[in-house]
Design brief:
rod-shaped
Length: about 600
């Protein structure tokens, strides 16, 4: 894109040098209402300020586009330079659109094609300018007689303009489509397009549009050598261009009229008209139009047998053609040189991008390695902590087991022994010497001491049942159920599924304590005559206790026992559900994660 900018700068400078004089905008007074503003040499820094300048210069360039090519190109270059500075695509599109219009009028179709392609690549989200790039591209194809490609692009541009409601632009493309048929000598096909374009411009009351269509249709009659019709249409077009003060339009029509006068031997009219065209082309700085005016003058003087004057003008024609050819060769050379420079620059940019990508890649690899190392450190540290936690948990479990054994032994040996001795001493008292009242007291005390002894033995056994420690949870549960079934009041059943191996000490003790607490609640409070304990091992450990008793206990009336059960389940990170059974009874469902066991 930078190369295209340099190319346009070189070409615009060449265009300005080829004019009759090179003056600044501030010094050149336009005889047809020119503005006298001065261009700022150094634009204000900052995008916001430069955007204002871009829009301002774009407006000036549009106003001068058909009045003074030098000024139009001058402002267009400033629009492009400031847009390049900020890499503003919209500004570059505005500049390319102006330059494309100029190079279309100047006949620089090689540059026009480059500009059209560049505009199309930038205007993907701007359909209006995409349509104009297709229009300019079609004009380039027409010049090189690539008719099919030209007509495809014309029709695509028309479709976009009509969809956007841009009737004037669509009519311009329709007029150009008529020109393409005219250049192919398909005059009958061209005329309906001219009529359609003229009708659209007439509906919009566009003098410029009507003048343009009249001129193009007039030139069709020039080609067909229908001079009267051609002259009439061209004069009507000239009046309209003069009305709207469109210098380029006047210049173009004057050259066409001079050509007609030459062909019809109206030599004085030809000389007068061509001289006016030459003056206008000098002001407009158009080498192509200057060449046409000089050629008409040479032909007119030749028709008048004024060979010296004809030769002078012909020499100017030849010189001007040589200048045009030189400019064309310079453009071609510059384009090839810029293409080569562009490839070198692209290669350098690509190498730079690759180097930057490698640097970023190395940084990312290094950063990734650091992250992996840190993650590995955290993983090993976490593993070490988990191992320590497991050791601590195991030590706590062992400590709790030892403490339970100690408390159980203390209860059994000390308190149990004391109660047994007390009971023995009671047996030594002779009841016969006691009064009836004293005998009742003696019996009550004897029963209470016996009951206390049995409670202490049961408590000592339940704190750490020998079978739980030696044979595991399943065996301890079987022994517990057998003891409870000795009561004969409630029928307990125990069902086990899975449990192919022992659980850790803490889990086994907590589950045993939970069963002990819940079965004790069933015996004391449920009023049931049947109960079942189900222990299942699959993905997790499931413990289910079901009875056919009184059912759900109100939460406000739940005692310490159920709270202890919930606390024990939470210590194993499990879940507990208490569900009422139909028609009566209660179900306690406990799930313990196997991953923690």
């Amino acid at each position: 894109m930078g190369n295209l900018y340099r190319l346009l700068t070189i070409l615009s400078l060449a265009t300005l040098v080829s004019g009759s004089r090179c003056t600044s905008v501030s010094d050149h007074n336009d005889s047809v209402g020119a503005k006298k503003e001065v261009v700022e040499a150094v634009p204000v820094e900052g995008f916001a300020e430069d955007t204002v300048l871009i829009l301002k210069y774009h407006q000036f360039a549009k106003e001068y586009l058909f009045q003074d090519a030098e000024k139009a190109m001058f402002y267009s270059k400033h629009v492009l330079r400031l847009s390049q500075k900020h890499r503003w695509s919209k500004g570059k599109i505005l500049a390319y659109n102006l330059l494309s219009t100029y190079y279309l009028m100047d006949g620089s179709y090689d540059v026009l094609r480059e500009l059209s392609n560049e505009t199309m690549s930038l205007s993907k989200d701007l359909p209006f300018y995409t349509a104009y790039s297709k229009y300019f591209l079609a004009e380039s194809y027409s010049e090189y007689r690539q008719w099919d490609s030209a007509q495809i692009n014309y029709r695509q541009a028309i479709a976009i303009f009509e969809e956007l409601g841009e009737d004037s632009s669509a009519a311009t493309c329709i007029n150009a489509l008529g020109n393409s048929y005219r250049e192919k000598s398909l005059f009958a096909e061209a005329i309906p397009y001219y009529e359609q374009a003229y009708a659209r411009f007439d509906k919009m009351n566009s003098d410029w549009g009507r003048a343009t269509v009249l001129q193009n249709r007039g030139y069709l009659h020039v080609i067909r050598k229908e001079r009267e019709q051609a002259e009439d249409l061209l004069k009507r077009s000239l009046v309209l261009f003069q009305k709207i003060n469109n210098r380029y339009g006047e210049l173009n029509v004057l050259n066409d009229l001079a050509n007609i006068y030459c062909l019809s031997n109206q030599n004085e009219l030809a000389i007068t008209t061509a001289a006016r065209a030459l003056d206008y082309s000098t002001i407009f700085h158009s080498s192509q139009q200057t060449n046409w005016a000089l050629l008409s003058l040479a032909r007119a003087y030749k028709n008048k047998k004024m060979f010296r004057e004809a030769l002078d003008y012909m020499e100017k024609v030849i010189f001007n053609r040589r200048m045009l050819h030189t400019e064309y060769v310079q453009r071609q050379y510059t384009m090839f040189q810029l293409s080569y420079d562009n490839q070198i620059m692209d290669s350098q940019i690509q190498n730079k991008i690759i180097a930057e990508q490698r640097t970023v890649q190395r940084f990312l690899i290094g950063f990734s390695c650091l992250i992996i190392a840190f993650a590995a450190f955290l993983w090993f540290n976490n593993k070490k902590l988990r191992r320590k936690n497991a050791e601590i948990s195991e030590a706590m479990a062992r400590g709790q087991a030892i403490e339970r054994k100690r408390v159980a032994a203390e209860l059994h040996d000390n308190l149990g022994g004391t109660l047994a001795s007390l009971n023995w001493y009671l047996f030594g008292i002779d009841k016969k010497v006691l009064s009836p009242e004293e005998q009742k007291i003696y019996e009550s005390v004897h029963q209470m001491v016996g009951a206390a002894y049995r409670e202490v033995r049961s408590l000592s056994h339940n704190l750490m049942p020998p079978e739980l420690e030696e044979h595991g949870l399943v065996m301890a549960m079987h022994r517990l159920i057998d003891k409870m079934n000795e009561n004969k009041n409630i029928e307990f059943s125990f069902n086990v599924s899975g449990m192919s191996h022992r659980l850790n000490n803490k889990t086994e003790f907590e589950l045993y304590s939970i069963v002990l607490e819940l079965t004790n609640n069933i015996i004391k409070h449920s009023g049931a005559n049947k109960a079942s304990i189900n222990l299942t091992e699959n993905k997790n450990i499931h413990l289910t206790i079901i009875d056919n008793g009184n059912g759900m206990v109100e939460p406000s009336r739940q005692g310490v026992g159920l709270k202890n059960v919930k606390n024990r389940v939470e210590s194993l990170r499990g879940k507990v559900q208490i569900i009422s059974q139909q028609p009566k009874g209660l179900k306690v469902d406990i799930e313990i994660p196997k991953t923690l066991i």
